[in-house]
Amino acid sequence: MNKLIFILIIFLLSISNSSSKDKIDNSCKWDNKEKLTCLQIKGYISNSSKYSKNGINKIVINKNEIEKIGAVDLIDVLQSETSINITQSGPKGQQASMFMRGTGSNHTLVMINGIPINDQSSTQGLHDFGVDFIQTIQQIEIYPGSSTSNFGTNAIGGAINIILTGDYKDAHSISLDKDQNYELSGNKTFIYDNSSLNIKFGTVKHETISARGEANDENDKVVNYTSNLNYENYLDLDKRIFNHIYLRQTKSEYDNSNTNQAGYIGNNRMAILQTGFEKLNKFSNQKYIIYYNLHDREYDERGVIDSYESEVIGLKYDLSKIFNEKISIGAGSEYKYNWGYFDNNGSYEASTKGNSDNISLYSNIGWNLNKNFNVSFFARNDDHKYSGNNRTYKINLDRKIDKSNIGVSYMKGLRNPTLYELFGTDNFGYSGNRNLKAEKSNTLELYSDLNINNYINTSIRAFRSNIKNNIEYVNNKYINDTDNVDLNQSGVNLNLNLNLKNMNFKIFSSFLSSKKENGSDQLRRPEKTYGVNFSKRIDTNYLGDLDLNLLYNHYGKHFDTHSTNFSTIEMDSTDLVSLKIEKKLRDKSYFLKITNLLSENFQRPHGYNQDKRIIKFGLKY
Fold it and tell me: Which domains does the chain have, with CATH numbers?
């Protein structure tokens, strides 16, 4: 709490330099000397239309905000969102899990440009957030709350959408620290008469501490290489074709235990190919997409190789149409075919080989009753090869009152079984269960968005949800729970934003209750989290204008599993502060980044060390 008071004091001292006449600066500006038209990146939201979009809870983190906090990987960006809790088994590059609104780590759907990318070769189809770095990412969108009716299965807790698109501002950036760790990225765009080609690349090396060992033990290293190619061609004013290629390789060193530092090396590769055609005019939007996803992972434990691979090929069609000033509709369909395998050859022997497919039909309607009241309805049917037909839907009512919006949503969610749950085997007698049914959820959400004046706005969202038919491992087999006792989550997310001309101040907090079937708390979900993100342009006598960003995160007390005796223990809270100072000179920016400014020593989860203070200097051209 003392650290929060410390940051609030900094805030009060900072605003003493801000005139009360400052206003929000909504003008669109470029650093280029040429006066070019400003561009806005708009994420692709499946199963939506103009008036139904009001019913979708969406948080956008753009490139400017990502760079402002000096983020290196996806975890740096997501850890300050009130609906998200993250644990990582060591420093950067180690395996990480995310719990959105208290649900399981396999209940968050991860997408690239609106296309799901969850790895079907993992045991529960979850996404490892520890291997994703942000050098080539343009924008991140967060959809808290059940989003199955919009995006598909796995989105019981919510969805994360990574936007890869052309960046028309050429730039190159590098940062270094005293241990020769680095972050390097580049962006180049070629513009022709009716088309553009954008090429991005990034690489990161991070080696600071041992994930499981002591201070003098070997450091666990991660090296990442990422590239992204974006091409679009306007055949006409209302027609375009587009292609996105994304390649990522992350090599990480892992520790088996605190007494076995040799561990093993993971080589995590992913390839994404998306190609499509879009026809867009004032009243309708049609989009056709063909996509292919590949996950290829290998783990080398001193010559013993474990291999994991999954592939997905899919076809997708989306239509949104405005009928009149009152009604908009949307419809679409998606077919995807999943296949994959894994072969674990260590002391734990397991293997999987199988395939499944899913075809979905969906639609939505937005009804703008008047300028102050809007009704949205979303429906989706997924026909899975093994779990059969499952319907999900969402209803939203949104009312505008003066400068605020209040609303209510009711949502049904869905998670289909993974390839391992269906087909897997191991040396302890487990055999896949092809009779598994889908997990299902119900969520009720109340919200209010209030614009107090031109400078201050707040957002409050309260939710309550439950998960039934949850898939459990019992007697060497995955089965659907049939005791009619649900997993339950409830909570409140709050945000307060103050925007002035040269300053932004954001307070965020979350109160969460996530319970097991027996009523006890689920592990690694703190009841309270809160923080502050403060940005300000400071005028100094010697250095001129400096851009300062200060980020404070409080991660509350929570329960965890002891890493050696496996008992349930209570973990203490952590208070982390990061600082970035940037100086712009013409077409160059020089910056200083300090993460974990107060050098807090902590583990999350238990037994896995986290980085202490790291100081980096960088240049962006």
Answer: 2-14+43-620 (2.40.170.20)
Pull the structure tokens for residue 96: 């990480």
Whether this prediction's pTM lies above 0.90 is answered by yes
Give the Cα separation of 340 and 401 in Å (integer): 51
Phi, psi torsion values for 279, nearest 5 degrees: -120, 120
Cα 498 to Cα 451: distance, rounded to the nearest angstrom: 10
For the chain (length 621 residues), average pLDDT per consecutive 10?
47 42 41 47 80 91 91 92 92 93 93 92 86 93 94 94 87 93 95 93 95 86 96 93 96 85 89 96 94 95 89 96 94 96 85 94 94 94 96 95 91 94 90 94 95 90 95 91 86 93 91 91 94 91 88 95 93 96 91 95 93 94 90
298, 306 Cβ separation under 8 angstroms: yes
- 272 with 289: CB under 8 angstroms? no
Q: State whether residue 477 is helix, strand or coil.
A: coil
Stated as kind and residue range, the H or E segment containing 398 is strand 388-401
Rg (CA), the chain: 24
Question: Residue 25: phi, psi to the nearest 5?
Answer: -100, 95
Q: DSSP label at 422?
A: H
Residue 382's beta-bridge partner residues?
A: 360, 390
What DSSP state is assigned to residue 586? T
d(CA 597, CA 5): 16
